[in-house]
Amino acid sequence: MDLEKLLTDRLAPAFETVAGVPVDPVVRRSQRADFQSDAALALARRLGRPPRSIAAEVLDRAELGDLCAAAEVSGPGFLNLTVADRALGGLIAALATDARLGVPTAAEPETVVVDYSGPNVAKEMHVGHLRSTVIGDAAARLLEWLGHRVVRANHLGDWGTPFGMLIEHLADLGEAEAAQELSMGDLDAFYKAARAKFDADEAFQERSRQRVVALQGGDEATLRLWRLLVEQSERYFLTVYDLLDVTLTERDFQGESSYNHLLAPVVADLDRLGLLRESEGAACVFPPGFAGRDGEPLPLIVRKSDGGYGYPATDLAAIRHRTGGLGATRLLYVVGLPQRQHFELVYAAAAQAGWLTSPARAEHVGFGSILGPNGRMLRSRSGESVKLVALLEEAVARATALARERNPELGEAEAAEVGRAVGIGAVKYADLSSDRHKDYVLDWERMLSLDGNTAPYLQYAYSRIRSIFRRAGAAARPDAAVSLVEPAERALAIELLGFSGVVAEVARSLEFHQLAGYLYRLAAAFSAFYERCPVLRADGELRESRLLLCDLTGRVLRQGLYLLGIRTPERL
Ligand code: ARG
Questions:
Q1: Which helix (H) or strand (E) holds 46?
Q2: What is the pLDDT of residue 449?
Q3: Which of 36, 294, 403, 555 has the highest count of CB atoms within 10 angstroms of its CB?
Q4: Nearest to 458, CA basis, from 307, 325, 568
């Protein structure tokens, strides 16, 4: 049902005949006609023929009759394609009766692990974790909708040397007092107090070191205190996930500590495979092809000189578990760009060890930072990193105020619900609509604006469609005859048919700004259509046909926003 794909399938055999080799026709939306193909231009040099004559021959050979009303060579050798209204109408009619809106489930479903969020115990989740949580959740939703088995892995930072001082501090405070402090979500205060004591008090330092030893040695009393820390933090993270409206649950916590029993075997196997080399007392893997700035090979330290295992060994154990244990073939790591090199080393070492081999592959779904209005890393007024919860609460408060202002008739409960959907939606959309490889600036005015590429704009478009049906007093008839008369109507139909192509592309690239951009274009096409084409005032079949277009637009917007993790209230 994807028009670009339909046209590609018709043009490809013709191009292949003319070129003698398979050629991608590169079909794209066009200003000049509905679509255009530029492939003849690229072929010209290779074939030593003028592009226009190549394009003309392709047109002669391609079977486009039922699909295109016009197909012609233009300019230096473009193919301009205008889709026939009848064909367009038929495709829209088929889309209307398809619960999946033209998007097929995966031909070969796989097990995909999405490693995302990954906050650290007894530390506040900061805005850096926001991106991971939001992007990772969109990936999980999308891949699940496509029929893959998705395993959400929340790689909680719940192990390591800082736990010595955290547990000692907890013991000093007393369990009840500590639990109280942690459940307030004041994780940073707890962490900082522990840190301050550690820096100032040598006796505390020594106790903390002994705690680490006790923790690693499995001392029951120490483990109990450690568990208390982990549980309190997990409970707090779950409240954040709830506020953020993501699909992570307590079942998805898969903390670093859960791999502890696998670390020694992992390192022993690396040794047996002859992959370990000692460097300054540490056991390292040196995957080929990685060099530091000085040209020296880069190590992945799997056992530190003090005998402890760390972050890299844990990630190796996690890979082995994910491919070998869970049978996953696609491993996604939604983690900030600064950790790129860590993951590349880990993937390379895992591949050498045979734990990450085709068809299994790992992808670092990296992302940039969130910047404040001054273009620097986002900080609170006192210069600290901004708490995620504070940011989300501000978004909800702002959106609730806006909702009340715009619609004074909204009741208290409804205003709160709309405020939450719009405020949280705005935060998530601002993130997902920007290219994840880049930094972006957090701008309240812009992200809450009802104009432009924002969540409120799309949510508003959706609610407007719902209000049409409230006024129509009936739902659209999915079997209505589709007639596309006005250009704005055709343009909307063509956008609607583009959904499946965008979804397929984003499932591969995990660049959600492509999906956001598509939804924005769709909403804009709807707006233009609604301005120019009367719906409720149209008669008979035309009214039915237009109601069907409205309904389809609403369904695609709703599904697309759902995939981004954004709610679509019936009225704003
Ligand atoms: N806890 C880490 C952090 O806050 C993120 C964990 C990412 N996942 C992983 N498998 N290493 O930076």
A1: helix 39-47
A2: 94
A3: 403
A4: 568
> Does residue 553 have its Cβ closer than 6 Å to ligand 1?
no
User: Can you tell me the distance from the alpha carbon of 388 to that of 397, in angstroms, rounded to the nearest whole number?
Assistant: 14
Q: How far is CA 191 from CA 90, 150, 158, 317, in A?
A: 62, 34, 13, 28
How far apart CA 8 and CA 64 sit, in angstroms, is 11
Residue 333 alpha carbon to ligand 1 centre in Å: 9
In 153-280, where does DSSP find H-type helix?
162-173, 175-183, 187-200, 202-216, 220-244, 260-272
Phi, psi of 3 (to 5 degrees): -60, -40
Q: Per residue in 346-384, pLDDT tens? A: 999 999 999 999 999 999 999 999 998 888 777 766 666
Measured in Å, residue 380 CA sits from the centre of ligand 1 at: 23
What is the spatial distance between Cα 457 and Cα 462, in angstroms, rounded to a whole number? 9
The tens digit of pLDDT for each residue in 512-570 reads 999 999 999 999 999 999 999 999 999 999 999 999 999 999 999 999 999 999 999 99
Do 214 and 225 contact (CB within 8 A), yes or no?
Answer: no
For residue 434, the 8-state DSSP code is S
* For ligand 1, mutation pick of 339, 340, 364, 369 (most atoms within 8 Å of CB): 339
Give Cβ neighbours of residue 124 (< 8 Å, ≥ 6 apart). 185, 187, 188, 191, 385, 387, 388
Q: Which two tokens stand for residue 161?
A: 């040397």
Half-sphere exposure of 78 (CA within 13 A, CB side): 15
* CB of residue 321 inside a 6 A radius of ligand 1: no
Q: Which residues of the chain have pLDDT under 70?
A: 1, 184-185, 380-385
Extended strands (E) in 392-530? 440-441
Residue found by looking up tokens 């489930």 in the block: 105
Pairing of strands 330-333, 361-364: parallel
Q: Which sequence spans correspond to the domains of the chain?
A: 3-83, 162-254
Going from the Cα of 76 to the center of ligand 1, the distance in angstroms, rounded, reads 52
Q: Which is the closest atom of ligand 1 to the Cα of 315?
A: 10
How high is the pLDDT of residue 407?
A: 86
Is the beta carbon of 115 within 6 A of some atom in ligand 1? yes
Q: For the domain covering 3-83, report its CATH number.
A: 3.30.1360.70
pLDDT for res 184: 65
SS3 25: coil
Q: Which long-range contacts (CB under 8 A, 24 or more apart) does 59-66 make?
A: 59/14, 60/14, 61/13, 61/14, 61/17, 61/18, 62/10, 62/11, 62/13, 62/14, 63/10, 64/7, 64/10, 64/11
Angle (CA) 556-561-562 rounded to 5° is 100
Q: State the distance between the two ends of the chain, measured CA to CA, in whole angstroms.
A: 32
Cα 344 to ligand 1 centre (Å): 14
Rounded distance between C-alpha atoms, residue 510 and residue 516, angstroms: 12
Give the pLDDT score at 381.
62
Q: What is the DSSP string of 270-300?
A: HHHTT-EEEETTEEEE--TT-B-TTSPBPPE
Structure tokens at 3: 């028009």
d(CA 500, CA 101): 8
User: Does ligand 1 have an atom closer than 6 angstroms to the CB of 157?
Assistant: yes
